[in-house]
Amino acid sequence: MKRKLLYIFLTFIFCITALTSYSQQQRFPKPEFSSGYEQPDVVTPEPRSGGFEYLDVAVLLVVLSLAAWFALRKRSRQGILWLSVFTLVYFGFYRNGCICSVGSFQNITLSFFDAGYSVSISTLLFFLLPLIFALFFGRVFCAGACPLGAIQDLLIVKPLSLPKWLNKTLGLIPYIYLALAVLFAATGTDFIVCRYDPFVGIFRMDAKFHMIVLGISFLLMGMFVARPYCRFLCPYGVLLSWMSRFSKWHLTITPSLCIKCKLCTTSCPFDAIDFPVNEKEIVQSGPGTKKFIVYAMLIPLWIVAGAFVGERSHLYLSRANQNVYLAELLISDPEIKNDPDNIDVQTFLESGKTMETLVEEAEVMRGQFKTGSMIAGGFIGLVIGLTLINTTVFRKRQDYVPHRGNCLSCGRCMDYCPVEK
To answer: Which residues contact 245 (CB under 8 A, 6 or more apart)?
Structure first.
């Protein structure tokens, strides 16, 4: 089945790429220059008209609805699989991975902190719709509507089960990435989730060498560690996980009574299935109660420590901002103004802005980074404290059940369940 899907991908890739290139040439013809200037190749998708933007939203809504239906009602792994194929072709290769729900929270963040920046309705819907569906049906967006997840999911060959401590440790990285992405977006510095998307270069078939290496590395890693980007890096996955924990309906392994055959535990490549916990384990966890109290009391210290680390690192982080970078560069090396090959410096000189104005803007930006870095650090400290507390909490379970926050609703476990539907 996977080989057939790969052959279909190759055919779609060539067809969609040719169609996209042709349509862009017709709708956005290149201007003619008489000075010998050569138009550079476009590395980002052309903007869509209003009608096509809403078409993308409609397609997303249909895909999310089908994913929820396949996972909860139809209980069909094959349906989810073919839906992810469509998602990869349409949102991945045809739409070039843009607009993407994974990076949309950066647009939303910037609109809150920059009055001059507005967000289109389509961008807002791409941000909200997956979260709304997660709140009602679990992470069905990850199952069949995310092109980043689909390209990884289809290349899983022989997944390995990671130790719990490693899963929890690596699970902190998306929170750190989310905090940094919000910080950089709020200050108008950069959209780092989009800039360092490991698969967008594959979707657009045009990326820098290091991004191609990064994307291929994730795919190769994903053959044995299932969906590494989704599980251990995706910042939008943090928001989806929060919503999914409170989902009214969620994918279940078995439609009726669990016979405890344990087949589901070996079928899930994401270590997202919680095992049964009996009363004896809860009663015998006396030291766990003491740990819970200690970890709870340490949460304020974790927050303070995180805020302190954030404050100490704001100078380094602020250098990613263009104004701060230029101010430091021109102050440390005034002679660089005479370097005609430095495009950033020459652009600043041609803008007519004075050095004093640049320094003032850099100081304001550093102040924003100082405040934002402290908040981001405190947030990370809180996450670490709550993660430690979670290791001491026992929840009584009689059956094997998918973890509502970590389950990607892929349907593999229910496909392996021998209980009749």
So the answer is: 404, 405
Give the three-state DSSP class for 274.
strand
Helix (H) or strand (E) holding 370: helix 355-390
| pLDDT tens, residue by residue, 33-86 | 444 444 444 444 445 556 788 899 999 999 999 999 999 999 999 999 999 999
Task: Tell which residue, 200, 222, 59, 85, has the closest CA to residue 143.
Answer: 85
Other CB atoms within a 10 A radius of the CB of residue 397 amount to 12
Backbone dihedral angles phi then psi of residue 329, each to the nearest 5 degrees = -65, -45
Which residues, in sequence order, are bridge partners of residue 26? none
Give the whole-number percent of the chain exceeding pLDDT 90: 59
Q: ∠ CA 317-322-326 to the nearest 5 degrees?
A: 100
**pTM for the predicted model, two decimal places:** 0.85
Helix, strand, coil proportions of the chain in percent (round to 5)?
65, 0, 30
Reduce the DSSP state of residue 218 to 3 states and report it: helix
Torsion angle defined by CA atoms of residues 68, 236, 150 and 84, in that order, rounded to the nearest 10 degrees: 20
> Which element (helix H / strand E) includes 402?
strand 401-402
Buried b / exposed e along 158-172 (16+ C-beta atoms within 10 A): ebeebeeeebeeebe
DSSP per position, 381-396: HHHHHHHHHHTT----
Structure tokens at 73: 């009602």
Dist CA 384 CA 369 (whole Å): 22
Radius of gyration (C-alpha) of the chain in whole angstroms? 24
Residue 14 C-alpha from the chain's centroid: 27
Paired residues of 159 in beta bridges: none
* DSSP class per residue in 72-87: III--HHHHHHHHHHH
Question: Is the Cα torsion angle 225, 181, 183, 211 positive or negative in sign?
Answer: positive
Q: What is the DSSP letter of 397?
A: B
Mapped onto helix, strand or coil, the DSSP state of residue 273 is strand
